[in-house]
Specification:
This protein is of the alpha/beta class and 453 residues long. It contains 19 helices and 14 strands. The protein has helices spanning 12-24, 35-45, 61-71, 86-94, 107-141, 151-163, 180-189, 208-216, 233-236, 252-264, 290-296, 301-307, 324-339, 348-356, 362-376, 389-392, 408-422, 427-434, 438-447; strands at 4-8, 28-32, 49-53, 77-81, 99-102, 170-173, 198-202, 241-245, 266-268, 275-277, 281-286, 310-313, 345-346, 381-382. Strands 2-1-3-4-5 form a five-stranded parallel sheet, with helices on both faces. Helix 18 packs across helix 19 (438-447). The chain is elongated, with a radius of gyration of 31 Å. The mean pLDDT is 88.
Length: 453
């Protein structure tokens, strides 16, 4: 759909000239001889941008601007003025106009400002739409911190909802940074133990001796430094859930005691003789292939099968790229608020780079990249140069190479096909990126015999 621009001026030649120039740029234009006629059109036609003179009969540009900024704050307004009223135009910008032009108007500069303004508004609107979609997803799925609409994430979250209310042990697997801990959080929050304790242990952060004491507790004097009795994480988790992250890192001795807890729900503190029984659900996570570790003899087979009652595989970000825009929007909202930065969205170049990058660090890397960009951005839009170098280095993969000697029609066909691929087949977004209307895109698809399936 073409963008609609309203030209308002009491001089017919100026109205006609500006209207023709903007139509040649692909816009649909409307004209009005004064502010009153313009206001009536704005209320009927769904105008995207207004170019208006200041001095006109019935209703002048200043009053029209006031009405637009009050009732339609998303419609940008450009002011036209004669040399003698430049001060009035500057005052109009203070009231909300985005720019002003003295007559005679420089058409090249005007069309450039119009294009940039509408592009910025498109980005802002797209960002707001994505924010609304994120909020809707959270409300519908009841997963406050897990964002995703890809089929792999939909399947995962459905399984989480099914498994959470049961007593089964769960093994969460996936690459580093995919969000395994968030899945564990969701399992506890949706379980019948949600009001009980949720204890987390990062196994790789502790030595084998410290890990055993951390999990099962110790008695006073059981080892050097044990100056008092200490309850372990399993005792603290009684009636709730314990989450053992990086379970593949625990040593054989601890594995034996963990197996007993799974089988008997009982253990002794380090250096103690009294048997302690607990009612704890165990959820584990690892980025290792535990079955391969079993085959190597570094992980007990019986423990593996006890832990792996339900296996939830969290997909890497490169396999769920359709979720990246939602994640980008969520992280942008979070970090603009935390850092008090007035950033409204991402430029087309930045978006292309974020979508084309493979994200070996997964969601953790994406989150850090967005936070960095928010801090480093110099304007209200995150540009390509604001992103980390490793992300922008792959931007070249989304460029299009054309051989010299092909016809203009062939070049246009290749560009349309590449843009459709970039936008995942979404014709509305492809048309917006190409700067043409959706009907024009359909016509060109038919003209060049491009498969629309």
């Amino acid at each position: 759909m073409k963008r609609r621009i309203l030209v308002v001026d009491d001089e017919k030649n100026i109205r006609s000239g500006l209207s023709l120039a903007l139509e040649m740029e692909g816009y649909e234009t409307f004209t009005a001889e004064d502010g009153q006629a313009a206001w009536e059109l704005i209320n009927k036609k769904g105008i995207d941008l207004v170019v208006t003179d200041l001095r006109m009969p019935r209703m002048g540009g200043n009053e029209l601007l006031s009405r637009i900024t009050s009732s339609y704050p998303n419609i940008p307004v450009i002011i036209l003025t004669g040399h003698g009223t430049v001060e009035n135009a500057v005052e109009a910008m203070r009231k909300g106009a985005i720019d002003f032009f003295t007559k005679p108007v420089n058409l090249d500069r005007l069309t450039l400002v119009v294009k940039k303004t509408l592009s910025a508004h498109d980005l802002a609107r797209e960002h707001e739409e994505l924010k609304a979609e994120v909020a809707q997803l959270k409300k519908r799925n009841k997963f406050e911190h897990i964002i995703g609409k890809s089929q792999k994430m939909v399947d995962l979250l459905e399984t989480v909802s099914q498994v959470a209310p049961t007593k089964a042990s769960v093994l969460i697997t996936g690459e580093s940074g995919v969000g395994k801990e968030l899945v564990a959080d969701a399992i506890h929050e949706l379980s019948t133990r949600a009001k009980g304790p949720f204890i987390k242990v990062h196994c790789a952060a502790l030595t084998s001796t410290l890990l055993e004491s951390e999990l099962f507790g110790h008695e006073k004097g059981s080892f050097t430094g044990a100056v008092a009795q200490k309850r372990g994480r399993f005792e603290l988790a009684d009636g709730g859930t314990i989450f053992l992250d990086e379970i593949g890192e625990i040593d054989m001795q601890t594995q034996v005691k963990l197996l007993r807890v799974l089988q008997e729900r009982a253990f002794e503190r380090v250096g103690g003789e009294a048997t302690i029984t607990v009612d704890v659900r165990i959820v584990c996570a690892t980025n290792r292939d535990l079955l391969a570790e079993v085959q190597k003899g570094t992980f007990r087979e019986d423990l593996y099968y006890r832990l792996n009652v339900v296996n939830l595989v969290v997909p890497p970000l490169r396999e769920r790229k359709e979720d990246i825009p939602l994640l980008m929007t969520s992280f942008l909202a979070q970090y603009t608020k935390e850092n008090d930065r007035p950033i409204e969205g991402f430029s087309s170049g930045a978006k292309r780079a974020l979508l084309s990058y493979d994200w070996p660090g997964n969601i953790r890397e994406l989150r850090n990249s967005i936070e960095s960009a928010v801090v480093l951005a110099r304007g209200t839009i995150i540009e390509l140069e604001d992103l980390p170098p490793q992300v922008t280095s792959q931007e070249s993969s989304s460029t299009l190479s054309l051989s010299v000697g092909i016809t203009l029609a062939e070049a246009e066909k290749h560009l349309i096909m590449a843009t459709l691929e970039l936008e995942g087949g979404n014709k509305t977004k492809a048309a917006r990126t190409l700067g043409i209307g959706r009907k024009t895109l359909h016509r060109k698809l038919q003209e060049y015999h491009i498969d629309e399936k």
